[in-house]
Amino acid sequence: IGNTVLHILVLQPNKTFACHMYSLILAYDRNKEGPGSLELIANKEGLTPFKLAGVEGNTVMFQYLMQKRKHNLWSFGPLTTVLYDLTEIDSWAEDQSFLELIVSTKKREARQILDLTPVKELVSLKWNMYGRPYFCFLALFYILYMVCFTMCCVYRPLKPRTGNKTSSRDNTIYVQKMLQESYMTYEDELRLVGELITVIGAVVILILEIPDILRVGAAKYFGQTILGGPFHIIVITYACMILVTMVMRLTSTTGEVVPMSFALVLGWCNVMYFARGFQMLGPFTIMIQKMIFGDLMRFCWLMAVVILGFASAFYIVFQTENPENLGQFYNYPMSLFTTFELFLTIIDGPANYDVDLPFMYSVVYFAFAIIATLLMLNLLIAMMGDTHWRVAHERDELWRAQVVATTVMLERKLPRCLWPRSGICGREYGLGDRWYLRVQDRVDPNKHKMMRYTEAFKAQDRDNYDKGLEKLEINSNIFCKKDPSPLSLSRNTSRTSSHRGWEILRRNT
């Protein structure tokens, strides 16, 4: 019952009352430091009161709980060294990491905890010492891996075509080799080594991704921008395309160019994932993800309707014409593709003025130009501009959350020998087996003194303004003749009190 009350207090809107009641309940806890402590009991979602405060973005409760966990090591003048308990904060050897819970929640208030002590210092320590070097090495390794795969695709086994052409539009001169003919020369053996590296890399990608999908859940794993959801979809699809290409090569099935082309596009697009490790490029990837999976996905439905309607109209208009003179609409699939190019203004109107054009072509093309080029493209630009304005206010905050998510991912994937535990063991200071983070804080007394004087000046200004209003009500007839305003009265009193305040500051200095 006591643990349930603690969880309820974390969710209370009245933060001050919740903190006092929290302390009162813990005062009656018999097992304050043992494993049966109320603060260490998790709810059905596996969240302790401390983790629940982070997920809900309750910064007041989080700071209150951190004040209970800190130990002042020494203090000398304005300098103070504090040890913060990293229990439930550090993601090292944690099944449900506190940092991962913060970056995966949809509440923006939770990400503000990443700027609080000691979470900010812990993330900075992990990222600068281990996260950034490992991430840069992983980015370089992936680029070299993609270069190897690209070279294997460029020099894939082909042979000249021997069959006759079946159509005047048939332009194929090379065909795919059979499996027995693909690995005969020294160059083929070198390509085989690169293909084996590519397949092994695809298998490793699936081995690393599938456990996280089962642990986190597909909806959260693929749907969270901070966790890199879109890029996880891209890299998993890329690995599947590699395996499909391998099966088609082993069975000598024609058409391997289809999965190979998809794999090349997806693999190189995934390089943008590694931009999150750089402050200059990281926020732009967030913009791209928001626009693609927000504005562009909605716009594609409208674009598909317009293209389908006008492509059908163009095909019907040119259905009775000679396809040799107007080849852009010789069949229905080509009409769809040509209309798509017209929609994006990649090509001009496909009109052959050496022959007579149908009258309806001019009517349909006029309507298409108005709706597609002038209306819908400008609508897309306006939608993206609005998204850019909304995301620009929090892109730096989202980028820092991406850095935290990347740090937790690397810490979970890498062996323990490559990523030691951060912090200081409590045995060195007689604090048990818990781990602590040492943070040095500097308190400027002059700054706090200045703030107190500023508040005093504000209080004097308010008192003088109230007295001025009373005089204004008593001597209303006199003031009506002279016509002064309350603004000028408050300005004079403010100037007088400010003068006294500066004199106090000058004497104090």
Q: Care to describe what's here?
A:
The protein contains 19 helices and six strands. With 509 residues, it is mainly α. Helices cover 64% and strands 6% of the residues. It has three domains: 5-116 and 423-446, no CATH class; 125-276, no CATH class; 291-403, Helix Hairpins (Orthogonal Bundle).
How would you briefly describe this protein structure?
The chain contains 19 helices and six strands. It is mainly alpha-helical.
Beta-strand segment tally: 6
Reported for the largest beta sheet, the result is: 4 strands, antiparallel
SSE string: HHHHEEHHHEEHHHHHHHHHEEHHH
* Average of per-residue pLDDT values: 76
Spatial order of the strands in the main sheet? 1-2-6-5
Number of helices: 19
Give the strand content. 5-15%
Low-confidence stretches: 476-495
Rounded to an integer in angstroms, the radius of gyration calculated over CA atoms is: 34 Å
Residues in helices, as a percent range: 55-70%
Shape: extended
The total number of structural domains is 3
Distance between the termini: 56 Å
Protein structure class? mainly alpha
Main location: membrane
Domain Ion transport: 135-393
Membrane topology: Multi-pass membrane protein
Subcellular location: Membrane
Sum up the structure in keywords:
about 500 residues, Helix Hairpins, four-stranded antiparallel β-sheet, two-stranded antiparallel sheet, 6 strands, metal-binding, transmembrane helix, Ion_trans_dom, TRPV5 protein, repeat
